[in-house]
C-alpha cells in the first residue's frame, strides 16, 4: 500500500485538498480526528492532560477546553511538547491500525492528513509527502479572518509551526493553494495520476 502524508501550515487549505482526494475515492486518515479521540472524556489521555496542566484546560463539562489549551501551547514550546508526548503515541498507534485495515480491504493507497508531520518527526512513516502551500502572509490573513484572531495571535500560531517555506522545500510534491478552487483541483487531479503511477510501478 502507498502511504501518502498530507501536511501544510495553518490556513493553507489542507482540509480542502484532503476533501478533493476523498471525493476521488482515496481513503483518508485524519490525525486531528485521532487526536480528538485521544482526549475524549474518560480517556487516559485527558486524565494525563489534567494531571500535567491542571483543570484550567477543562471546560465546565469536564471536556478539554481547546481554546485554553491552545493559548498555553502556542506560546510555550515546552508545554506543546508535553501535550504532544501525551497525544502522539495514541495517534501513531491508531494510524497504523487503520492502515492495516484498509490494506486488508484491498486499498492500494491511503492519504494521511498530519498538520504537524515534520514537526513531529513523522517523515519516515510515509512513502511520499504532499505539502499544501500558501505564502506565510496569506496564511496569517486567512487565519485572522477564519478564526477571528488578532494578528499577534495568528503570528503566535504560525511561529509554533515549521515555516511553510521549509515544508515546501522538504516536500515530495507541492500543491499551490494560492489560486481558486478550480486551480487547486486541477493540481490534485495531476498529483493523483502521479500517485497511481507509483502504485502501478510498485505492483509490477
From TrEMBL:
The keyword RNA-binding belongs to this UniProt entry's keyword annotation: no
EC number of the protein: 2.7.1.24
GO cellular component: a single term: cytoplasm
Keywords for this protein: ATP-binding, Coenzyme A biosynthesis, Cytoplasm, Kinase, Nucleotide-binding, Transferase
Chief location bin: cytoplasm
Superkingdom as given in the UniProt entry: Bacteria
Family membership noted in the UniProt record: Belongs to the CoaE family.
Protein name listed in UniProt: Dephospho-CoA kinase
Gene: coaE
Amino acid at each position: 500500500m502507498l502511504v501518502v502524508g498530507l501536511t501544510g501550515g495553518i490556513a493553507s487549505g489542507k482540509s480542502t485538498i484532503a476533501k478533493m482526494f476523498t471525493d476521488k475515492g482515496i481513503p483518508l486518515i485524519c490525525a486531528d480526528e485521532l487526536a480528538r479521540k485521544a482526549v475524549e472524556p474518560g480517556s487516559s489521555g485527558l486524565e494525563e492532560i489534567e494531571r500535567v496542566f491542571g483543570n484550567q484546560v477543562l471546560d465546565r463539562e469536564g471536556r478539554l477546553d481547546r481554546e485554553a489549551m491552545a493559548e498555553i501551547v502556542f506560546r510555550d514550546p515546552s508545554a506543546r511538547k508535553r501535550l504532544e508526548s501525551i497525544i502522539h503515541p495514541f495517534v501513531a498507534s491508531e494510524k497504523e491500525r487503520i492502515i492495516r485495515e484498509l490494506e486488508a480491504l484491498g486499498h492500494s493507497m491511503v492519504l494521511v492528513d498530519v498538520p504537524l508531520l515534520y514537526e513531529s518527526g513523522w517523515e519516515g512513516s510515509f512513502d511520499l509527502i504532499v505539502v499544501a502551500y500558501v505564502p506565510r502572509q496569506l496564511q496569517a490573513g486567512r487565519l485572522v479572518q477564519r478564526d477571528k484572531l488578532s494578528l499577534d495571535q495568528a503570528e503566535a500560531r504560525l511561529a509554533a509551526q515549521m515555516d511553510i517555506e521549509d515544508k515546501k522545500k522538504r516536500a515530495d510534491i507541492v500543491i499551490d493553494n494560492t489560486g481558486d478552487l478550480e486551480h487547486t483541483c486541477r493540481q490534485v487531479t495531476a498529483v493523483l495520476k502521479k500517485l497511481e503511477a507509483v502504485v502501478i510501478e510498485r505492483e509490477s
